[in-house]
Amino acid sequence: MAELTPTPERPGLHISKPSPSAPATASAVCHCGASATAKGDAQVKALVDGYTANHGPAHHRTGR
What we know:
The protein has a three-stranded antiparallel beta sheet with strand order 1-2-3, with helices on one face. It is globular. It has one helix and three strands; from the N terminus they run βββα. The longest helix has 14 residues, at 41-54. With 64 residues, it is α+β, with helices and mostly antiparallel strands.
């Protein structure tokens, strides 16, 4: 799994939920230098929403 973990050299978002009863975990690294981790379904959802809105794909949107 280490190869899936985002790094400054390979930015991105990684989410894991090994079973329905296990808490989700996530890590994110943006090419702008921002990084974050989260544990628990609600916190992971917040991380994904924030990353999507402000980092990663948000940096490539046109018209911003």
